[in-house]
Amino acid sequence: MKDRFLFFENFRQMADCLPDDMQLKFYKSLMSYVFDDTEPDDPVIKSLITAIKPSLNKEEKRGGNHNPTGQNQHNKSKPENNEVKVGQNNNGLGQSEVKVGQSGQSFLETETGNGNKKQEIIKLHSPQSKSFAERLREIVCRKKNIRVDGRKLAGWAKSFDLLQTADGVSAERISAMLEWYSENAGGDYVPVAESGASFREKFTKLESARQRAEADKRRVGDWMNGKKEHDWSWV
């Protein structure tokens, strides 16, 4: 019987896009499948579990043997990165994966033609940029009722980095715009920003839309106040 398994970031991202009651059911069903070999009854949850079965079964075959200390015997010679896979792609030389170690360092791991793995350190995004990318992903998931592949988040965070460093937009302005966009996405004349790149590209247009909306709100408020103060005694 298995006593452990690797929990990948995309599992949590799948759960985050579900309603609260379905999230609990997803996690319980995941545990039941891994440890009790029990399939879920709910068709929605079953489809999600089915989608991640390849990852679960692959890890079981690759790292199922453990010594008494709990260390994976297949990984004794590997550095202790405690890595979390956040993205991958295939190329002519093999499979590439963007990973994050326990220290927070991002690196690209590529399988070479002889079966070895080459690791190349990637410049880290700032913590704020990662948070901004996560916030935009949550907004898009909620507003569009879709799942956003977690492998895109590294690129989204880079766009938020550039928005701050190259474009000179402060973190405070970005945070305020994300909160406004969270409430107004999908509204009339609100630019659509469903990725880090499009959010950066349309940032000034988003700010203009916000300013117009606030100006309209003030005009309506002034009109309502004037209407209340008007002398209606002649009616």
Report on this structure.
By secondary structure, this protein is α+β, with helices and mostly antiparallel strands. It is built from eight helices and four strands; from the N terminus they run αααββββααααα. The chain has helices spanning 9-16, 20-36, 43-63, 127-144, 153-165, 171-184, 196-201, 203-229, and strands at 84-91, 94-100, 106-111, 117-122. The protein has a four-stranded antiparallel β-sheet with strand order 1-2-3-4, with no helix packed on it. Strand 1 and strand 2 form a beta hairpin. Helix 2 (20-36) packs across helix 3 (43-63), helix 4 (127-144) packs across helix 5 and helix 4 runs parallel beside helix 6. The model is unreliable at 63-94 (pLDDT under 50).
Question: What are the key terms here?
Answer:
alpha+beta; 235 residues; 4-stranded antiparallel sheet
Secondary structure layout:
Layout: H1 9-16, H2 20-36, H3 43-63, E1 84-91, E2 94-100, E3 106-111, E4 117-122, H4 127-144, H5 153-165, H6 171-184, H7 196-201, H8 203-229
Antiparallel strand pairs: 1-2, 2-3, 3-4
Helix pairs in contact: 2-3, 4-5, 4-6
